Amino acid sequence: MKVRVGIIGATGYTAYEAIRLLLRHPHAEVTAVTSRQDEGLPIAAVHPQLTRLLDLKLEPLEVDSFAERCDVAFCCLPHGASAETVKQLREVNCKVIDFSADFRLSRVAEYETWYGVQHPWPELVGQVAYGLPELFADQIKDADLIANPGCYPTSAIMPLAPLLKAGAIQSGDIIVDSKSGVSGAGRTPKLGTLYCEANESIAPYAIGAHRHQPEMNDIIHRFSGSSTDILFTPHLTPMDRGILSTIYVRPNGVDADAVREIWQSAYRDSPFVRIVDHIPSTKHVAGTNFVDLAVRTAGNRLVVVAAIDNLIKGASGAAVQNLNCIYGWDQTLGLL
Amino acid sequence: MKVRVGIIGATGYTAYEAIRLLLRHPHAEVTAVTSRQDEGLPIAAVHPQLTRLLDLKLEPLEVDSFAERCDVAFCCLPHGASAETVKQLREVNCKVIDFSADFRLSRVAEYETWYGVQHPWPELVGQVAYGLPELFADQIKDADLIANPGCYPTSAIMPLAPLLKAGAIQSGDIIVDSKSGVSGAGRTPKLGTLYCEANESIAPYAIGAHRHQPEMNDIIHRFSGSSTDILFTPHLTPMDRGILSTIYVRPNGVDADAVREIWQSAYRDSPFVRIVDHIPSTKHVAGTNFVDLAVRTAGNRLVVVAAIDNLIKGASGAAVQNLNCIYGWDQTLGLL
Amino acid sequence: MKVRVGIIGATGYTAYEAIRLLLRHPHAEVTAVTSRQDEGLPIAAVHPQLTRLLDLKLEPLEVDSFAERCDVAFCCLPHGASAETVKQLREVNCKVIDFSADFRLSRVAEYETWYGVQHPWPELVGQVAYGLPELFADQIKDADLIANPGCYPTSAIMPLAPLLKAGAIQSGDIIVDSKSGVSGAGRTPKLGTLYCEANESIAPYAIGAHRHQPEMNDIIHRFSGSSTDILFTPHLTPMDRGILSTIYVRPNGVDADAVREIWQSAYRDSPFVRIVDHIPSTKHVAGTNFVDLAVRTAGNRLVVVAAIDNLIKGASGAAVQNLNCIYGWDQTLGLL
Amino acid sequence: MKVRVGIIGATGYTAYEAIRLLLRHPHAEVTAVTSRQDEGLPIAAVHPQLTRLLDLKLEPLEVDSFAERCDVAFCCLPHGASAETVKQLREVNCKVIDFSADFRLSRVAEYETWYGVQHPWPELVGQVAYGLPELFADQIKDADLIANPGCYPTSAIMPLAPLLKAGAIQSGDIIVDSKSGVSGAGRTPKLGTLYCEANESIAPYAIGAHRHQPEMNDIIHRFSGSSTDILFTPHLTPMDRGILSTIYVRPNGVDADAVREIWQSAYRDSPFVRIVDHIPSTKHVAGTNFVDLAVRTAGNRLVVVAAIDNLIKGASGAAVQNLNCIYGWDQTLGLL
User: Fold this and answer.
1) Which residues does the UniProt record annotate as the domain Semialdehyde dehydrogenase NAD-binding (chains A, B, C, D) (predicted)?
2) So what CATH class is A151-310?
3) Cβ under 8 Å to D: A residues 239-268
4) Phi, psi for B29 (deg, rounded to 5)
5) Global pTM exceeds 0.80
6) Which residue among B155, C85, C324, D319 is the one 20 to 30 A from B312 at the CA level?
C-alpha cells in the first residue's frame, strides 16, 4: 500500500512540482490537495498540466479529515501560517514536510527578527531536522517533522558545508551572489513578476537583507564551528527556474583540486551531487534534483559555482528526497 | 512654444511609451501626468527609466487645472471610464487622443454589446476620426478628438483596406491569426501575464470573440463596401512587444505582385509603411512606428504578413503620429 | 533483459530527449551513441545534463558492431543520409525508428520533389508504418522499421484525421497556422536560431512551402478519401519547445460538441490525447507526450487548437511510444 | 554639412546599433558600410530593421576610397585585425573610433599575453585616449583615435574610478560579478549562443580569466595610484542586451551616503550617469546610453550596482558620445 501524501496550499509552483514528482513515485500517491481560495475546483483547473493525471478537488484544510486520508503533509503555506498548521497536523500524528521557513532557524529570536511575526510554536524551534539529506541524514531518518530548506540556502550550503568542516576556507569572508529564475517569487500576481517587468531584466534585490542570509549562516555555523558571516545577494533572472550561485571564498592553503576532493569525499554516497569539471549552468539541472558543483582558482580566491533547479532540489525534489529518507526508501525514488 | 501634452492614466506601458516618444519630439512636451492610485509619486517612481528625464509628479485628474496646463490629452484610461473623461476634457476645449476603444466603433449598439457598458457619450459615436493617418488623413487633420486604433486592428486594417478597396480580395473569407507580445495585456498584475505563466508558452485566447474583431470589421467595411466577416484569433506570445499578423485571404484574380502594387500605390506617401520582400518579424519593427507588410501565394490563397510594435504603431506611436497630423507637422516628428 | 537501444546522430536535441526518456524506461536501455563529428567524446561532454546518468562515448557508426550491441536504432540523421543508414541497419536485422522524413511519404516522386535528393531505397517508400500509434497501431505492431512523424504533422493530423474520417469537416479548406519553439530548428549553429535573432521575435517561414505540408496532406488523405489541400504556415516562436497549431476548418453541419465526441470516440484508448475544455497552451504539455486538443466555433468556421511538445510527442516521445508498441508493452512506459 | 561616418565591419550587433543611433544624429550621417563576407548586399539585407532607413551597399574596405567618403571610421573589427586597419586609416587621416581592444591597454606585453597575438602597431599602445568621456574628457577632446571601452569594463570603471581616486575603498579587494545579455557574444553563429542553449540558462564563463579583467585593472590603476586586483566573473544571461554588475568592495570608513556624494561630485556634469536610490535593473537602461549606479551597505562591505545597455553605453552609444566629444558637440546629441 502506498504512502498517502496531502498537499497543503496546492495552487503554487512548488505544490505543482511536488505533485508532478509524486505521480512518478512508485511508493507514494497524492490523496488530498487543499486551498482556501480555490476550494471546490478540480486541481487541473489551477494546474492544467495535471489534466487526466490527478483527479482531486481542492478542499479547505480540515485537519482531522485530512489526517485520516494522508500519512504525510507537504505544507506549502507561507511562514507564520505554516507553523500554526504544522502544530495541528502533528497533534493528529500526521508527518509533515514543511516548505516554509518556520522551523529552519535555530533560535526563536532570530526568526522573529527576520520574519517579523511571533513564532506560533517556539518550543520546537531548533529541534527540527533541516531537510538536506546529504548533510543531515541522521536527523532526517525517523523524523516526523522536517524543515525543507530554502532554495538559495541549498545552493550555498551544499558546496560550503564540507569545505568549512574541513577548515579549507575562511568562514569570515564568503560572498554568495545568486541568480534565481522567477518561479522563486511565487505564483501570486505582483508587479515585479509580470512578464514585461522580469523579461529582459536582471537586478539584485534585498542586498545583504534577504531572509535566506541568516538561514545560510545558521546552518553553515554548524559546520564551521566559528561564526560565519556570509554576504548574500540574490538576483531576479529572466528565466522560469533555476538558481546559479557564484560563491567567492578565501582558501586556507587549498587549491581547486583539494576542494574537489573534499566534496568527493563528503558526497561519496550522495546520488544527487555532481562534481563537474565544466562550468555548471542552470540549464544542466533544470527539471532534476541534481546539485552541480564546480570550482575555479582566481587570484587569491576560489570561485565556487553551484547550480540547482530551485523548484526541485530547491523545494519539491528535496521534499520527496526527505520523504524517501523518512520511509527508508532509496533516496532517488521518483527523482530520476 | 511647444505643444503641451498631458498623459491621463500614466502608469501603464502605453503611457510610458508615449512619454518616451514625446521626450524626443521637437515641438511637444509632457506637462502633466495623472494617476488615481499613485497620486503624489514622481513619475520616475513608477517608470524608473524616466529618472532624470521627466520631473513630474503623478496627480489626480482635475479637468480644469489639467486643461490650463495641457493643450492635448493622451487619455490612457480603460473603456467606459475613458469616454466619461474625454467628454469633460472636450468641454474645456482640451484636444484628446483617446487610447481606449470608446470612439472607435460606428454604432452605439455594437459598442454596448461588445463592451458590456452603456456608452457615456453616445451622440459622438461614429463621428470621431479613426486615428490611422495612412487611411484617414482628411478626418484626422483639424480633429479635436481622435480614436487611437487598437493594436491588433492596426496590423490587420493596414494591409487589408487597400486590397478591399481595390476589389483585389474577397471580403467574406478573411482569417487574421495574430501573435502579440505580453505588453498588450497591460501592466495590472494578473495570473496570466506573470512571467512564469507567459514564458515558454504560446496560446490563443478569445477565439472569434475578441473585441478587436468588430473593430476590424467596422473599419474594413468602410473600404470593402460590402459586409466583411473577419475571423480573428489573437495569441499571447512570450515576448515583451510586437504583433505579427498572418492573414489568409482569397484573391480575386490577383497575384502577389499585384498586391504589392496596390500597397505601393496606396501608401506612396506613408513614411511608416514598408512593403518588403523578406518575411517580416516583430523584431524588425520593435521600437519603431513601422508597419512591415509582405505577401506570399500559397495554393489558391494569399498569405499576408504584417508586423508592428504593439506599443508604438499599435498605440503610442500612432498617437504621436496623430498629434503630428492635428498640428500639421511632418508625420515623422519624434518617431524616427 | 532490457531491450538495447542505440542512438545514431546523438548530439542533437531530439537525441538528448530520447536518451532522457529511455533512462526512465523500465524495459529499455541505451547501449550505444554515435556521432561522426564528436567521435570519442563522452556523451556528457555534448549533453552536460547527462553527467553521471549515461556513461557512453560517442562512436562513429559501424553497422555490424552497432547491431551486435543494439536491438533497436533511433536514427536521428538528416534526410537522405538517414535512408542510406536505415537500409544498412535493416540488412543486419536491427529494428529502426527513423526520425527523418525519408519513409514518411507515400510516393517517391513527391519525396524527391520536396527533398531535392534521390531516394536511396525507393522500393520501401509507401511500405513503412507511420509512427502515430493513435492512428496506425495495426501497422506499427510487429513493424521492424517505423517512420517517426514530423513534429508539425503530428499536431495537425491528430485532430484532423478523425474529423475527416467522419466526414465532419471539408477536406478542401483547411489552414494550419503553427507556432514552434526554436528547438525544432535543430542544434547546428545558424544565424536565424541565435538567441539574439530568435528572442523577442515571431515570424512565419516557408509559407505554403514547408516540407511538412505534403506530409500532412499525404497522411490526411488516407482518412479523407478525397484529396486534401492543407495550407500550412509555420512560425518560429521565442521559446525552447512546444508546437501550438491553430487550425481553421469548415464544418459539415457539425458543432464543437460533435467534434469533441468524434475525438472522444477515436481516442478512447489513447492515453496521450487530452480533449480539454480550456484553451491549450504549449506550457501545459511541455516535457510530456500529451496532445491537448480543443475546439471553438467562430462564425461559420471551427477553430481547432492542438498543443504538443515538439521534442517529445513531436519526436522522441513518439519514438519511445512506438518502441513500446513494437514490443507489445504498455504505450505509456517511460512516458508518464 | 554633416560629419560623414563609415562603419567598418557593419554586419554585427554593435554596428547595427551605431547606425541606428547615427540615423538620429543631427550633425552626422553614415556614408559607407563595409563587410568582406557580405560584399555587395544592401545593408538592409543583413539588418532588415534598416529597410527604408539607410540605402547603402556593403563594400569591401578600400582605405583610400573609404577615406574620401568618410571623416570618421567606426571600426568594428575583431582585435588584431582592427589595429592593422586602424593604422591604414590613420595614415590617410581618417579619424577612428576603434571598438576593438587593440588600443585599450597601456602595455604591449600585457596585450600580447591576453590576446595571444603580436600587436600590429605597438608604438601607439598606451598613447590612445580611452573613450569614457566621463573620466577622460581631456584626452578625448581633439583626439584622432579613440579606444572605445569594453562593455564590462564600462560597468565597473564608472562606479569604481571616483571611489578609488577619493581613497574611499580598498583597491586590493574588489569583486565584479557581471551579468550580460547574449548580444555581447556577437552575431557569429556558435553553439553557446543558440537560442536553445542560452535560453532558460545562466552560467559564468572565463572566471578570473576574461580579457576585460586586465582592462579593468589597467584603467582603474590610473585612479587608485596603487595596484589593483579586481576579480571579475562574467555571466551569460538569458536576455538580448544589458549588463548588470554587482560589485563587492571594502570601504575605507565611508558609508553609502558618502559613496553617493563622491559619485555626485565626480559626475556632476555627466548627463548619462544616474545615481539612483532604487536598485538598478538592465531594463531601466535598455536602449539608452545611461549608467545607473546604486550602493548598499551589507555587513562590512559595500555592494555597488551598475547597469548599462551593453550595446549602447557599452559600445555604440559610447562611440557616438566620443564622436560628439571629438567634434565639440553636446555629449548627448543623437543619444537621448
Assistant:
1) 4-143
2) alpha beta
3) 239-242, 244, 246, 248
4) -145, 155
5) yes
6) D319
